[in-house]
Write a structure and sequence with these properties.
Blueprint lengths: L2 H14 L3 H14 L1 H11 L6 E5 L5 H10 L4 E6 L2 H10 L1 H5 L3 E5 L12 E7 L8 H11 E12 L1 H5 L13 H10 L3 E9 L4 E8 L7
Parallel strand pairs: 1-2, 1-4, 2-3, 4-5
Antiparallel strand pairs: 5-7, 6-7
Helix pairs in contact: 3-4, 7-9
The chain binds S-adenosylmethionine.
Length: 217
Amino acid sequence: MRIADRLWDSVASQLGRPHGIAGRVVGRILNRGNYTTVAAAVAATEAGAGATVADVGFGGGIGLDELLAAVGETGTVHGLEIAPTMLDQAGKRYRAEIAAGRLVLHAGAMHEMPLATASLDAAISTNTVYFIDDLGAAFAELARVLRPSGRVVLGVGDPADMARMPFTENRFRLRPIAEIVEHLQAAGLVLREDRRISNGRMQFHLLVCEKPHTQPK
Ligand SMILES: C[S@@+](CC[C@H](N)C(=O)[O-])C[C@H]1O[C@@H](n2cnc3c(N)ncnc32)[C@H](O)[C@@H]1O
């Protein structure tokens, strides 16, 4: 592998599962680079004071900040991550919120969430689906943990824009948005909106979905 390819491969590996000292730096870079998308995803959940919400694959944790602000002192935020480095970083950074019971961190993957059925009013997951092989299993889990009428907002980079990034060649799975929507619908989630946003460098899709009161037949 050429040196440049090796470099981009290690960037992709860090983005898929930040680890070690470099992973801590990646967490901070993610917070800065993805702020616009993450904040827009939280706003699209319309979660208000007292809600129970989650960020699945929170990375550097900017989504935890935004969700904590949205649900206030009486709400609860769950943060799920597969990366021990990100869990450790968030555990230190949000010590006070965890001690107050406002934030609960979990080691877990989207396809296997340690959360009770119908326990969430809303969830976000931004820039994670590229690293998930079995979207059917992952979205079925999202649908399970949402309460009826609960919302999930997925933030996904536009595949054409993502394909132009040198680090997405390896380890990323760039699917057409229509394919992701098909998986959401197969999991029983209803797409309410495909909201487009831009962070100045590329376009993102916020796929705003709801769990219906009765599962469609
Ligand atoms: C590119 S980062 C995005 C972080 C954050 N959501 C953001 O938008 O800045 C992807 C994150 O998803 C996590 N991740 C990858 N696969 C996951 C899975 N199956 N379930 C939960 N988290 C996952 C990674 O550990 C990493 O922290």
